[in-house]
Structure formats: C-alpha cells, structure tokens
TrEMBL record, chain A:
Name of the protein: Carbohydrate ABC transporter permease
Family: Belongs to the binding-protein-dependent transport system permease family.
InterPro entries per record: BP-dep_ABC_trans_perm (IPR050901), MetI-like (IPR000515), MetI-like_sf (IPR035906)
Species name: Parasulfitobacter algicola
Residues annotated as transmembrane: 12-33, 76-96, 108-129, 141-163, 184-209, 240-261
From TrEMBL, chain B:
Family: Belongs to the binding-protein-dependent transport system permease family.
Domain ABC transmembrane type-1, first and last residues per copy: 69-280
Transmembrane segments: 12-37, 68-94, 106-123, 155-178, 208-228, 264-284
Coiled coil: none
Record CDD domains: TM_PBP2 (cd06261)
The UniProt record lists the keyword Transport: yes
Subcellular location, principal: membrane
Record organism: Parasulfitobacter algicola
Keywords tagged on the record: Cell membrane, Membrane, Transmembrane, Transmembrane helix, Transport
Pfam families: BPD_transp_1 (PF00528)
Keyword flag Lipid metabolism: no
Subcellular location: Cell membrane
Superkingdom of the source species: Bacteria
Identification of the protein by name: Sugar ABC transporter permease
Amino acid sequence: MARAISKRRTVIVTILAWTIGLLIFFPILWTVITSFKTEAEAIADPPSLFWFNWTLENYNVVNARSNYPLHFMNSVIISLGSTLIGLAIAVPAAWSMAFVPSKQTKNILMWMLSTKMLPSVGVLIPIYLISRNLGLLDSRIALVVILTLINLPIIVWMLYTYFKEIPIDILEAARMDGASLKSEILYILTPMALPGIASTMLLNIILAWNEAFWTLNLTAAKAAPLTAFIASYSSPEGLFYAKLSAASTMAIAPILIMGWFSQKQLVRGLTFGAVK
Amino acid sequence: MSTQHSRSAARIMIAPATFLLLAWMLIPLCMTLYYSFRRYRLLTPDRQGWVGFRNYENFLTNPAFTSALINTLVLVLGVLIITVVLGILLAILLDQPFKGQGIVRILVIAPFFVMPTVSALVWKNMFMNPVNGLFAYAAKAVGLEPYDFLSQAPLMSIIGIVSWQWLPFATLILLTAIQSLDSEQMEAAEMDGASALNRFWFITLPHLSRAITVVILIQTIFLLSIFAEILVTTNGGPGTASTNLTYLVYAESLLNYDVGEGSAGGVVAIILANIVAIFLMRAIGKNLDA
C-alpha cells in the first residue's frame, strides 16, 4: 500500500518537475531553435517549434557581417586573462592564510569581502576618467585589470575554503618520512589543491564572461566582448530575431556548458563558503 | 610549527592581493569623493571649481532620485520575494526522488549562466515584444489584446526578467541546504503524525533559515547594481519609470556628462550599499566562526 502511493507520487513529482524545468529552460531553448530559422519563419504567426526548414544561414551571416570572431576572442582573452592573473595573485595569499593563519587572517578575509560591497557605479567615474587619461578606453587591458580586481575577493575566498580542507597533518607525516619542502609542495599539496583551483578557475571564467557593467561602459567597437556586442542588437537591428538568436546562442553556449560542470562550486563560490 | 620565518613568508604572500585590493578600493573612492564636491562637466572641462555640497543637493532634490530610489527598492524586494518563495518550493520539489533528476537540475540552473545582455534582449524581443513576441501570439491566440510589457509595466517586466536569471541561484543554494537536512528527523516527525505543512513549517524552514539569509544578502548586492538589463530593455524609461540608482548615476555622468553630480550619486549609492553590507558581513562573519 505504502509502495503504491509512493509510486504514484513519484510519477506526479516527475511530471511536475519536468514541466517546470522545461518552462524555466524554454527561453534558452527557443533562442537556440530560432537561430536555425529564416527571418520570416522567426516571426511567423503562429510560431513553429520544430517544423520548419532548419538552416545555418544565420550563423554564417553573423560571423561574416559583424566581426563576431573578434568579439568572441575579446571575451576569451578578458575572462581567461583576468582569471589567470587573479589566480596568480590569489593562490599565494589563500595558501598562506589557510596554512599559516594569524590573528589577522579573519580580518583580512572579511575586509577583502567588504571590497566586493562597493557598488561598481560608485567608482564608475574615476575608473572611466583614469582609463580615458591613460588611453585605455576600449582596450582589453583595462578590462582584464578591472575584472581581475573585481573578482579577486571571490577567488581568494574560494581558494581559502578549499585549502582549509586539506588536512595539515598529512604534511607532518610526510616530514617525518623525510620529505623535503619541495617534494612536500610538489607531490602532496599540489595534487590536493588542484581540484579546488580548477573549480575556482571555472567559476571565475563564468563570472568574468558574463560581467556586464564595466564591459558595457568601457568598451566600444574594438575591445567589446560578447556582452557589449550583443547589447548593440538592442538597436532596431534586434528585430532580426534569427540573427539575434544565432549571436546569442554562440555567446552563451560555451559558458552554459562550463556552468553545468560547475554547479557545486557555484554554491560554494558565490556564498563565500557559507553554504557548501 | 609556524616559525618566525614562515610567518614573514606568509605575509609576503598575502601582500600583493591586499595591496592591490586596497589600491582598487581607496584610489577610486577618494576620486569619487573629490569630484563629488567639484563642478566638472565633461563638455566644459575648463570650468572647474569647488562647489561644496551643491552636487549632492542637485542629485538628492532631482525628482528622478526619489523615483530611482523607489524603483531600486521595488526591484530588489520584488526579485527577492519571487526568487526566495519560488526557490524554496522548487528546491523541495527537486529534492524528491524522480526520474531524470540530474537533467531537470541542469535545465533549472541554466538561466544563471546566460549573460545579462542576452537574457534581456531575448525577453524583450522574442517574448515581450507587442507585435512579434511569443506572449503577443499567445494573447492573440486566445483572443486578447497583446500587451506592451516594457512600455506599460517596465519595472514589473524587468523584475520578471531578473527573477528568471536569479531563480536558479536561489534554487541551487536552497536545494544544497535541503539535502543536508537530517532525514531521520523528518521520518520521526512523520511517525508522530506531523502534517506535511507542519513538517515544512517547523523543520524544513528553520533548517533553511541560514541558506535563505545568505541568498537574500548575496542577491541584494547584485540586485542593487542591476544595469545591463535596464540599459538593453528600456533605457530607464519611459521617463524614469524603470530607472534605478545605478542607472541614474550612469545617466548623469556618462549621458549628461556631469561628473560632479554623477560622483555625488555614486557616493550616495555607496552609502546605501554599505548599510546593506553591514548586515551581510555579520551573517557571513558568524558563519566563519562556526
């Protein structure tokens, strides 16, 4: 009896969960589908979900007409560059805070977190003027630097929470066995730290890829990453739904795939370790 | 084990990160403060000078400020209520055993990874557009007048779009928290005849309280500075109907070229964000001790 109820319940839950899941996902699905339509079909009434002539033409047009590869590369360089530089700065800091904690460690961590509370718009003008005066408006360098600094607290925090979980006793055991400091770091700590570093990297590439305040305000034609490039479709050009969809699909696909891999890290990273 | 030597090594390793963040915080902050007391328009850059609190006066007495403040509050609260309430329900649902759990989870989490400009454009054109949007087709199909979402109810539409982006975040965190709930406690309550509603109210909700706090506080930081969604969909309009504080400062400084007043607005935004931040730091700081 109890079994029958739970079976029926599973069916209902399955149907409900799938319906809601598909509903939430639908705007993305619809964008991807529309990207394979012709412009006429994209605004056809009634709209068609699958039964139309699938075409890749929009992707060709977007690639050819709007310098899409340049903006894609800008996104890659900016998100990857800022993440790698951020890691280079943050790994030593998080490392020493996790393994050689002092009385100040907690205060430094909290203070780093507090820099994240500074609303971007509060420093928009200085950053804009500095970039202008240095001739760095619409340059990738400026964005790499800014995104590095914006995400640095998150990188330090994430790494810190991962490093903290490495059992320090294992080091002492290794030392007893006569391991040198070099082999300690190389063979024991690094392999244990790598998964944490990798997930920190993944999450930060995602955050940097989607950042849309500084990228919109500090770039124009040259250094614009995909966020800014897509925003240019808000002009009447946006009425070309199929092309808008193709550009959007290409912009979100890589990060969507990375994001699915980083679900777990996302929780830890964005809550600064408060929820794991 | 930590000797004097390793202590100083640790300090050197922390130094670059600390120094950079300090510079990143202090230099622009001082500049914003400086400009907020100066007359400085980008179109007439030669006429500069100290103006005392006049920029603040202008910014705070600007009718757009009041509406931007209200809009910011409505936007933040609206999205918070929607995402937290739906997030709890969704997390409970996804916690139940069912077929294809992993795939549904992936579907639900997906909107979070869509860049703000893309989600704003997709919703604006392909769903909310009064002529060619899907909602318009749906309305016509059942014999209703298509509704022009972004000009009739701009703020509500933006709340909808932003909620779609942030619901996955709330759901994922609440789901993570629910999964750490002790199932024996639940079963014991069930044996004792506690109804589903009671179990939710007296066991699940208290268990989730910390995760809910975290969701609220972290979302608030991000929601206070919503920008791209407004820029792409409504440009803050019609009028100032969908202008929030972030957008107003942007408009003052980079559209009206008034660096002085924009800076004053920036300072106001910083002060308001700090009020929120104090609560956040407390909540997370407590967790650090635990």
